[in-house]
Amino acid sequence: SHMNTLLMKWVMVERRYNLTRGQEGMACARFFTQISTLADVQENVMEYLHVLSRPKVIDQEHDVVWTEAYIDSTLADDQGLVLMTTVAMPVFSKQNETRSKGILLGVVGTDVPVKELLKTIPKYKLGIHGYAFAITNNGYILTHPELRPLYEEGKKRRKPNYSSVDLSEVEWEDRDDVLRNAMVNRKTGKFSMEVKKTVDKGKRVLVMTNDYYYTDIKGTPFSLGVALSRGHGKYFFRGNVTIEEGLHDLEHPDVSLADEWSYCNTDLHPEHRHLSQLEAIKLYLKGKEPLLQCDKELIQEVLFDAVVSAPIEAYWTSLALNKSENADKGVEVAFLGTRTGLSRINLFVGAEQLTNQDFLKAGDKENIFNADHFPLWYRRAAEQIPGSFVYSIPFSTGIVNKSNVVTASTSIQLLDERKSPVVAAVGIQMKLEFFQRKFWTASRQCASLDGKCSISCDDETVNCYLIDNNGFILVSEDYTQTGDFFGEVEGAVMNKLLTMGSFKRITLYDYQAMCRANKDSSDGASGLLDPYNAFLAAVKWIMTELVLFLVEFNLCSWWHSDMTAKAQKLKQTLEPCDTEYPAFVSERTIKETSGNIACEDCSNLLISTNYDMVLIKIAVSYRLI
């Protein structure tokens, strides 16, 4: 039978051709191939593929195979390297006269960019912090916003284990693997837990409760999950305006849309592939491209947002024309983003005069709408009290490259209610010097009757700091401390703030970290020479000591040349590792705290104030000799 033929097929790798009687019997009764080298295996086995595949062909089993996520370096796009998955299936002959023979015609397959799969999920319905993710039947991540497959962002070097990152390594708060096990077992259900999401290069943290909804994807080994942060994504606002009104306001030059969101499908027809999403929407609404397929519900909300946000352009223009409002051009950019991915940007200075040239550009992934998340300034503002501003200074490496700008943003709710959805966020970016000058001016204005401050930042014995809600310094008398963590500058004061409950410490974990390790850059064989090198080094050291009193030290330097030293250099490399590190968040319910900090021959008095409308803290410490 065909099954017996399959089971009894033999492939032998042997250089000599003397066969035993038993082997000859199997060769005559079944299939037998003798191969001289391993290099010939593939070529010879291909001849018997039709035998191997015969049972599935006869049973007409079209097994579909999906691979894990991988990076195809040849298909990099504007956003960098692309994660792919490959799907393949066999092609059989279905003719009745050949079906019993089980003829395999071949295999058909295609490569699918993972981001194309994500286009089927409406990002605007997931809320500000919501996201979709998928895993394989082994629990490995197919796509997830927290997946970091490269050694460094913007580089092309891939991590050695990037295709086998487990879901538990990114959703690490699920200590019992409830979510992971349910998805691996292809179940459908819901799961909730408190999560700590890091933002801004891992230096800040957002604490929230996520509701996870998961199910299997039919016909694939994958399971799909959707995470909705509680308070966002549950309530959705719908507006209604005419197409004429919306089109008029979409024509404004300051309007843009999220390029990675799918408002219209521009991939179906070749003539549409050069269109941006905004261009596609305009053509769709004007009826000039009947073949365009667009999300009508999303476009209706885009039109509404365009109409409602249009008056802010006139307001920004009036500010720009009023020279007294921004005489020193301290405020450089004003911006607005809405729930539909619509953005408005206004420059108060020329583009070439901007201090931060990259802000809100395509390469500034953290601060623009993309397929994975809302802008950083939008997400942070949404987690604060409505109407309050959140401030930040962009992080950079080294003091010389520190950014000279401050970003401030606030969220906009539909109604003045806790359950009312956040529909937009608005903010500005200003020069750091301008912001600091405003702070020092405000710090001198006191509410006492005589106008004098009980504690003045002008006092030489007083150190004043303005720190944001994550403990990073916005303003300090020492300009080089700007952007540093407050605890690195005033460790005792930060500990006191933690003790008083003004700040709380949160422990975070990173299971995709890359740590620097010292590796021996010499070849592997050099280790075999270590005993000889050690002996020679000892002999030469003794001889050197004997002649030191006769010669100058330059002879010693010559003696300890590269020939006498161990010919090995330490090279720093990055290796995968697990890390644990802290983050800090201010406690909004505590408005003002004060306390004393003991130290040698002095006393430090700490006063910390938390403003209602500005979520920043003033920490004042001074010494009483």
From TrEMBL:
Coiled-coil boundaries: none
CDD domains: PDC2_MCP_like (cd12912)
Domain Voltage-dependent calcium channel alpha-2/delta subunit conserved region: from-to ranges: 262-607
Matches recorded under Pfam families: VGCC_alpha2
Domain of life of the source: Eukaryota
An example Gene Ontology molecular-function term: voltage-gated calcium channel activity
Signal peptide positions on this chain: none
One GO cellular component, as annotated: voltage-gated calcium channel complex
UniProt name for this protein: Calcium voltage-gated channel auxiliary subunit alpha2delta 3
Organism field: Ursus americanus
